[in-house]
């Protein structure tokens, strides 16, 4: 009998996870099937109980359930608790255990795709929402020289910094302040949704002060090249889109379910084909 895996969220009809995971199961020869389930907020509790009752082997969690699922699970991994969000659940002998692979997925994609280390780097995160939290906590364990945050609502950036448990130099800035300081950073990461389809002409901040050779990474993958990345490229930056993060968070979830780390290059090809574009890592 096939093992069943899935995704819960709303909406999920455009998700690329089923295609990516079903292909990966086939590649490693495991009889399993991954299905995307549309679950409205008010049905989350029933859905989680249903997953358990049906013996579903594992599932991903996406918007809007990443935080609200926490009290419904049997146990939460330490990192996911710190981040305050779960994107991966493993059914361990009938107990549902929550993990977060988003932040680690981003950091793995950043380091492996661009072949860099984060030790001693000066990093700026744009945004202080759910996505920023995971990335911030994962970056913090990599010995960066500083990880500064800028956000439209500066207080949210300050809150995030004050909650942290890992000692790393971090300052909170407004978007205007950060624009003036862009030349100080080696790596700039957009974690906001600004520039995502259909608002493809928008940018979270101006890159006037960006220095040549800076790495600019955007977690958005639709479009494959946001206005921020286009501008950054024009300024001589090294750019990276969000396909890598999407693939690596999925690959790390897959590893938790099967014990096998899948072929991320193959996963990337599937995602990029689905998005109708070319792989985008510009050096
Ligand atoms: P996610 O879980 O995807 O990170 P979120 O928690 O709602 O979503 O966070 C969205 C982030 O994008 C926040 O940093 C938000 O800024 P605020 O904290 O000020 O709301 C940022 N954001 C969203 N729309 C924005 C816009 N038009 N301009 C600047 N920042 C924006």
What can you tell me about this protein's structure?
This protein has helices at 17-28, 44-54, 78-83, 102-114, 130-140, 154-163, 175-181, 227-234, 243-258, 264-275, and strands at residues 3-9, 32-38, 58-61, 75-76, 88-92, 95-99, 122-126, 146-150, 172-173, 187-190, 215-218, 238-240, 281-282. By secondary structure, the protein is an alpha/beta fold. The strands form 2 sheets. It has a 7-stranded mixed β-sheet with strand order 9-8-7-10-11-12-13, sandwiched between helices. Strands 2-1-3-5-6-4 form a 6-stranded mixed β-sheet. The chain starts with a strand and ends with a strand. 44% of the residues are buried. 2'-monophosphoadenosine-5'-diphosphate is lined by residues 127-132, 151-153, 156, 191-194, 204.
Q: Top keywords for this entry?
A:
283 residues; alpha/beta; Rossmann fold; seven-stranded mixed sheet; six-stranded mixed sheet; 10 helices; 37% helix; binds 2'-monophosphoadenosine-5'-diphosphate
């Amino acid at each position: 009998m096939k093992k069943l895996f899935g995704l819960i969220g709303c909406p999920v009809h455009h998700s690329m996870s089923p295609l990516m995971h079903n292909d990966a199961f086939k590649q490693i020869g495991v009889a399993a099937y991954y299905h995307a389930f549309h679950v409205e907020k008010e049905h989350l509790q029933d859905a989680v109980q249903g997953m358990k009752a049906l013996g579903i082997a594992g599932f991903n969690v996406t918007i809007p359930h990443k935080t609200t699922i926490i009290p419904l699970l049997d146990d939460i991994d330490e990192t996911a608790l710190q981040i305050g969000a779960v994107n991966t659940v493993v059914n361990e002998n009938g107990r549902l255990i929550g993990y977060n692979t988003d932040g680690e997925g981003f950091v793995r994609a950043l380091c492996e795709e661009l072949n860099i280390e984060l030790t001693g780097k000066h990093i700026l995160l744009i945004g202080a929402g759910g996505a920023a939290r995971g990335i911030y906590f994962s970056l913090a364990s990599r010995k960066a020289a500083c990880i500064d945050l800028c956000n439209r609502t500066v207080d949210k950036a300050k809150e995030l910094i004050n909650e942290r448990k890992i000692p790393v130099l971090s300052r909170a800035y407004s978007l205007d302040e950060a624009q003036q300081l862009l030349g100080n950073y080696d790596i700039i990461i957009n974690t906001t949704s600004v520039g995502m389809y259909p608002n493809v002409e928008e940018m979270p901040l101006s890159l006037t002060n960006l220095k040549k050779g800076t790495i600019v990474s955007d977690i958005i993958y639709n479009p494959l090249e946001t206005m921020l990345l286009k501008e950054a490229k024009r300024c001589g930056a090294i750019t990276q889109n969000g396909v890598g993060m999407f693939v690596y968070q999925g690959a790390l979830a897959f590893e938790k379910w099967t014990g096998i780390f899948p072929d991320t290059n193959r996963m990337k090809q599937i995602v990029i084909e689905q998005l109708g574009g070319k792989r985008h890592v510009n050096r």
